[in-house]
Amino acid sequence: MASALQFFPTIGSTNDVAIATAREGVAVVAEQQTAGRGRRGHVWFSPPGSGLYASIVLTPARARIDPARATTLLTIAVGVGVSEGIEAATGLRTDLKWPNDVFVHGRKLAGILAEACAAAGAVQHVVAGYGINVGVSAYPPEVRDRATSLESELGRAVDRYVVLAETLASIAARYDDLLDGRFDAILDAWRARAPLAQGATVRWTDSSGAHQGVTAGIDEQGALLVKVGDRIERIVAGELTWA
């Protein structure tokens, strides 16, 4: 999948450079980000030498079967690839939390941000960026009770470039599944790594007010299903609070 790898000692955001490149298969990797970001404008703390910060240009719209569904499932597929790559590189089993976070023992280890590159009103490419906390200093002290790192969990040093190689390889394999229409394989792999997708209490707020329900899995489009009373709500975006 990766046709070229661009490495930067310091960069604003790997996603921004990948979006500007907009060429399928290009992977942008940085030692440090000065303007790293997560979903909904959140900052992704990106100090030098402590984390893995990478973005890849993908084109799910060229999938041979149901390109619209392939595009919708891209973040799910990349999440599976990141989780599988971490396990291949380190032996550490991780959990996935909808829609885009990687957790270990209830603490956040990695995050994924997918952003579309549009031209003439149509999505041409999607940039999938991911950040993995490798060392303890990869996250600020004020989030220490909510975050973790590979080295904290394993109790040993971790080679970030081995993690990079394995995550890129795993993402490439899941991207091939996406392009070939093997959607069930992606969904099944995600469900197997997402214990909170069933039976967890979640809260959210939308234009109609505050809501609470219990997770009931994800559907074939990757939307989170939440049982609220006697009905099922379908969540496709937004901020959730997990109890």
Give, in order, the helices and strands: EHEEHHEEEEHHHEEEEE
| The CATH top-level class label of the largest domain | Alpha Beta
Instruction: Assign an overall shape.
Output: globular
Weakly predicted, low-confidence segments: none
Number of helical regions: 6
Q: Specify Rg, calculated over alpha carbons.
A: 17 Å
Could you give the distance between the termini? Answer: 38 Å
Overall helicity:
25-40%
The neighbouring-strand order within the major sheet is: 1-2-3-7-6-5-4
The total domain count is 2
Number of strands: 12
> Considering the protein shown, what is the CATH homologous superfamily of the largest domain?
Bira Bifunctional Protein, Domain 2
Mind explaining what this structure looks like?
The chain has helices at 14-21, 67-72, 74-90, 150-154, 160-179, 183-192; strands at residues 4-8, 26-30, 51-58, 95-97, 101-104, 107-119, 122-133, 198-206, 209-218, 224-228, 231-235, 241-242. With 243 residues, the protein is an alpha+beta fold. The strands form two sheets. A seven-stranded mixed beta sheet has the order 1-2-3-7-6-5-4, with helices on both faces. Strands 11-10-9-8-12 form a five-stranded antiparallel beta sheet, with no helix packed on it. Strand 6 (107-119) and strand 7 form a beta hairpin. The termini are far apart.
